[in-house]
Design brief:
The chain is 31% helix and 23% strand. The chain is built from ten helices and 15 strands. The chain has helices spanning 20-29, 48-57, 76-83, 112-131, 182-192, 209-218, 240-253, 269-282, 321-337, 350-354, and strands spanning 9-14, 36-38, 41-46, 64-72, 97-105, 136-137, 144-151, 154-160, 200-202, 262-266, 288-292, 306-309, 342-347, 362-368, 371-379. Helix 2 packs parallel to helix 7. The longest helix has 20 residues, at 112-131.
Length: 386
């Protein structure tokens, strides 16, 4: 079983809803073949050592799951019988720690916690029977993680090689007000097809997530360089040389020169301080020019580039007239001050979006949490369109 590190199996890389097209492209760019893509992830074949590469490289992923076994189980007893046959003693150290997560839809199970306990019991009973001792277990995701996916009578058990979600990129120690998840921010930038060489301007930057993700991408700096603990490190057979070799490769491809102007502004000096702290943690503070100002006074370098707003959305109904005015001002600013750029506004409020007063050339669908959102693209022509 420790051979999982060198043996290919079915791997599911998950992501938040609507990020799948961007995740699929990232995985393909790493040289993997995609077997299928679906709304919340992609399927491929890989070994756990190859999962290390996936964990360190992906901007838009949540978890990297390596399948140990697929089987039929109508109820909890059948689940247990199948799981207790797996040689867990070859996977989990007896002095280690593991946790169980699950996604369960089975009519005999009223709470996923019950399924989790059954998985834990099978693992513990097997190891205790073989070794006379058992590892500890609990809710923490910072050690070994086992994941159960059980739909009706079809069950799959996975090693969750990630543990803590990959969707957070480990630099946001100070979240600020209503922050955008890092994986979502990365996906919106990928949607713009920004080349990483022209300017990237982010007025109303809040805690700085969009500007920081842009700076990381401009450097081809992968999120894995910001993190030193993953679930794969806590299984028997882990070779730290594989991990450190992958980190060395990532360091070698990091760009240090010829980097673009990245400008982040906010009217709140407190927001800018938080954004600077987050950028410092990410190691990109020196790449971002921070400005405390009204968004209409943000520096926009001459030429072509990308400018992206993520303004407040307000309530869906009964929108405040103040926000309507803000969206109208965003439209005026884009039209008058950003000629030659591609403009983007990320919003969860279609009524406010109409106040921008520009015709969107494209609309990308995203979710921010459970809120249905759009990234609106505007071509900001110099002079007339003709």
């Amino acid at each position: 079983m420790a051979e999982v590190f060198n043996t290919q199996s079915k791997v599911i890389v998950t992501c938040n809803r609507r990020l799948s097209p961007f995740l699929e492209q990232e995985v393909r760019d790493l040289g993997f073949d995609i077997k299928r893509a679906f709304n919340t992830g992609v399927e491929l074949k890989a070994s756990v050592n190859e999962c290390i590469k996936l964990n360190l490289n992906l901007h838009t992923a949540s978890q990297v799951l390596y399948e140990l076994k697929a089987f039929r189980a109508n109820n909890a007893d059948e689940l247990y019988k199948n799981l207790v046959q797996i040689p867990w003693e070859d996977l989990l150290p007896i002095d280690g720690y593991f946790t169980v997560t699950s996604n369960v839809h089975n009519e005999t199970i009223t709470t996923p916690l019950f399924a989790n306990v059954k998985v834990k019991d099978a693992i513990v009973d097997r190891i205790k029977n073989k070794k006379g001792m058992r590892p500890n277990s609990g809710p923490d995701l910072n050690r070994a993680v086992i994941h159960l996916h059980w739909m009706e009578d079809r069950a799959e058990i996975f090693l969750d090689t990630s543990g803590e979600t990959l969707a957070k990129h480990s630099y946001r120690k100070h979240p600020g007000k209503a922050p955008m998840l890092e994986a979502l921010a990365a996906a919106t930038i990928l949607a713009t097809k920004w080349n990483g060489r022209s300017p990237f301007v982010n007025p109303m930057c809040g805690s700085g997530t969009l500007a920081i993700e842009a700076a990381l991408m401009a450097q081809t700096r992968k999120p894995g360089l910001l993190r030193m603990n993953y679930s794969f490190m806590h299984f028997i057979g882990y070779d730290e040389e594989v991990f450190f070799n992958e980190r060395r490769i990532l360091k070698d491809i990091t760009e240090k020169t010829n980097l673009p102007d990245i400008i982040a502004s906010d009217i709140s000096s407190e927001a800018i301080e938080i954004a600077k702290l987050n950028a410092r943690t990410a190691g990109v503070e020196h790449l971002i020019k921070f400005e405390v100002c009204d968004f209409a006074e943000t520096t926009v370098p001459v030429g072509q580039g990308v400018i992206m707003f993520n303004p407040e959305y307000g309530e869906r109904l009964g929108v405040h007239s103040k926000l309507e005015m803000t969206y109208a001002r965003i439209g005026d600013f884009l039209k008058k001050e950003c000629q030659g750029y591609r403009g983007y506004v990320f919003t969860g409020n279609p009524d406010l979006a109409k106040k921008i007063g520009l015709r969107a050339s494209r609309r990308f669908e995203f979710f921010n949490g459970k809120l249905d959102c759009r990234l609106l693209q505007y071509e900001l022509y110099e002079g007339s369109k003709d």
